[in-house]
Amino acid sequence: MHPPSAEGHVNATDVFVSCSFGKQAVTKMSTKDKQKVYAQWSETYEQDVLDNDYVAWPICAEKIFAVMSNMASEENISRPFKLVDVGCGTGYLGTLVSDRLKSTDISAFLVGVDFSSEMLEKLATRSVMTS
């Protein structure tokens, strides 16, 4: 399944690029229409994005991990970090960060926020973030 638009069917790459880079196809939709798109896309969103060679999630996860590692060692922070992922979708980024932290003594409290309740339902199945 490809992400639908409010008006009809759209190629996954088109919607993804629109959402990620501010193109007009999605940015001019009302919030309600955007919610419909993401509600219908929630079933295949993650795989569609990965199939289109999206590289931001692993890059962001590594950057977040590097900052947390530096703060933990340089500033001797031992309390859990608090990380909020705004527009978290299915929580894939949180999973990558959580997986990266498992091999360390760094702990973090991860919170995901998204306007799509269907995406948050997918997030809830991961058990790595709260919403």
What does this 3D model show about the protein?
- It is built from seven helices and two strands, in the order H-H-H-H-H-E-H-E-H.
- The chain is mostly helical and 131 residues long.
- It has a two-stranded parallel sheet with strand order 1-2.
- Helix 5 (56-74) crosses helix 6.
- The longest helix is centred in the middle third of the chain and has 19 residues, at 56-74.
Q: Helix and strand layout, with pairings?
A:
Elements: H1 12-21, H2 24-27, H3 31-41, H4 45-51, H5 56-74, E1 81-86, H6 92-101, E2 108-113, H7 117-124
Helix pairs in contact: 5-6
The shape, in one word, is elongated
The DSSP helix count reads 7
Instruction: Spell out the CATH superfamily of the largest domain.
Output: Vaccinia Virus protein VP39
Radius of gyration based on Cα positions? 16 Å
Unreliable stretches: 1-24
Percent helix: 40-55%
CATH-derived topology of the largest domain: Rossmann fold
Q: Could you give the count of β-strands? A: 2
| Whole-number tally of structural domains | 2
Q: Tell me the strand percentage band.
A: 5-15%
Organism: Gracilariopsis chorda
Protein name: Methyltransferase domain-containing protein
Pfam family, one: Methyltransf_32
InterPro entries: Methyltranfer_dom, SAM-dependent_MTases_sf
